[in-house]
Write a structure and sequence with these properties.
Blueprint: H1 5-12, H2 24-31, E1 36-39, E2 45-49, E3 56-61, E4 66-71, E5 77-83, H3 88-91, E6 95-100, E7 103-111, E8 124-127, H4 133-139, E9 145-148, E10 153-154, E11 159-162, H5 165-180, E12 186-191, H6 199-208, E13 212-220, E14 242-245, H7 251-263, E15 269-272, H8 280-283, E16 292-299, E17 307-310, H9 311-325
Parallel strand pairs: 3-12, 3-13, 13-16, 14-15
Antiparallel strand pairs: 1-2, 2-12, 4-5, 4-9, 5-8, 6-7, 6-9, 7-8, 10-11, 11-17, 14-16
Helix pairs in contact: 1-5, 5-9, 7-9
């Protein structure tokens, strides 16, 4: 299965938490012929395809982990702070792009301590090649976002490695589902700032007021060492999406997702937990409550530049959402 053009574009239109506007043109290009596309002051992107019937919202966060310029000292070795949670040993040695008002500045993440001790964030700095602080300050400013350079790489068996698959993979699934849902009242929320606490989805769902919502995200693939105990259940690349069951998920929505998967022969797993740690955790409690489900794509190497998914799982997720949407009917009760 080749890498879909929309997913490729989403992975290349990169921006860390708080800078989601870089993907706006990609979303408009993908579904602007079918849907109304707009953004808000937080950075959410909402694509709405209007029709009769209950409004179904697919919520997938656009933001990704990254860094931002914190201080530019006289030695030009730039201090950065994190946007989202990731490990210092993953950042060390990476090539980066700093997005400035005048364009992109290239750099690398280096380390002040060069021994075998554990890598810590306070040891790291960004080197852009400037001769001194004055030159560096002429190129970058405090607050400029920093992203890792790791474009998509197609692997064997229809698998792809890239930065930002958390959660541009979910955004792609939402957009492709919208394209296939002709005659359905559906909206896609490309949510901002999920990595910082899901404030984007909270605001977008409050404004949208959907009848039903499905959050789309990634979950730890348990077929590699290190991630095998990170989540409830066993979720492998090629095994289809994980359907979440837990307090944030409406039981009837879960049942409809499971019914759709079983009746349509869609490979899937079930994931369980106290919290989802996704946009579902704020979506279900919006206003007087929104019946919410969660569908997640198995992913290796979470929060790194070498995240890996299998494209067949994205297609299975699209099929699941389309089948689920056909089961949402006016007047249905989601009372617990």
């Amino acid at each position: 299965m080749p890498l879909p053009d929309v997913l490729d574009a989403l992975l290349r239109a990169h921006g860390p938490s708080g800078h989601e506007q870089l993907a706006f043109d990609v979303v408009r290009e993908a579904v602007g012929d079918l849907a109304e596309v707009e953004t808000d002051s937080i950075g959410n992107i909402v694509a709405r395809r209007r029709a009769d019937g209950p409004l179904i919202a697919f919520v997938a966060h656009l933001d990704v982990i990254g860094l931002a310029v914190a201080h530019v000292p006289d030695d030009a070795l730039i201090a950065a702070h994190r946007l989202g949670s990731w490990r210092a040993n993953v950042a060390y040695g990476q090539r980066v792009e700093i997005r400035t008002k005048n364009g992109t500045v290239h750099g690398v993440i280096a380390r002040k301590v060069k021994d075998n001790e554990k890598v810590e964030w306070e040891q790291l700095y960004v080197d852009i090649g400037a001769r001194n602080g004055e030159e560096a300050r002429s190129l970058v400013e405090i607050g400029d976002p920093i992203v890792v350079v790791a474009p998509p790489l197609e692997l064997a068996n229809g698998r792809v490695a890239s930065r930002s698959l958390d959660n541009r993979a979910g955004v792609y699934v939402a957009l492709e589902s919208l394209r296939r849902l002709e005659g359905v009242n559906v909206a896609v929320v490309g949510a901002a700032q999920e990595e910082l606490g899901a404030q984007g989805a909270q605001a977008a769902i409050h404004a949208l007021r959907p009848d039903v919502a499905i959050a789309l995200d990634v979950t730890y693939a348990t077929d590699v060492p290190g991630d095998d105990a990170a989540t409830g259940g066993h979720h492998v690349l090629g095994g289809g999406p994980a359907i979440f069951r837990g307090p944030a998920v409406n039981p009837r929505v879960f049942e409809l997702l499971l019914e759709a998967a079983k009746e349509d022969g869609i490979d899937h797993t079930v994931e369980a937990g106290m919290k989802t740690y996704t946009d579902a955790d704020v979506t279900f409690a919006s206003r007087d409550g929104v019946p919410t489900g969660l569908v997640s794509i198995p992913l290796r190497n979470m929060h790194s530049p070498i995240e890996i998914v299998e494209l067949s799982d994205l297609e299975a997720s699209v099929r699941l959402l389309v089948s689920f949407a056909a089961r949402v009917r006016p007047g249905d009760s989601y009372s617990r």
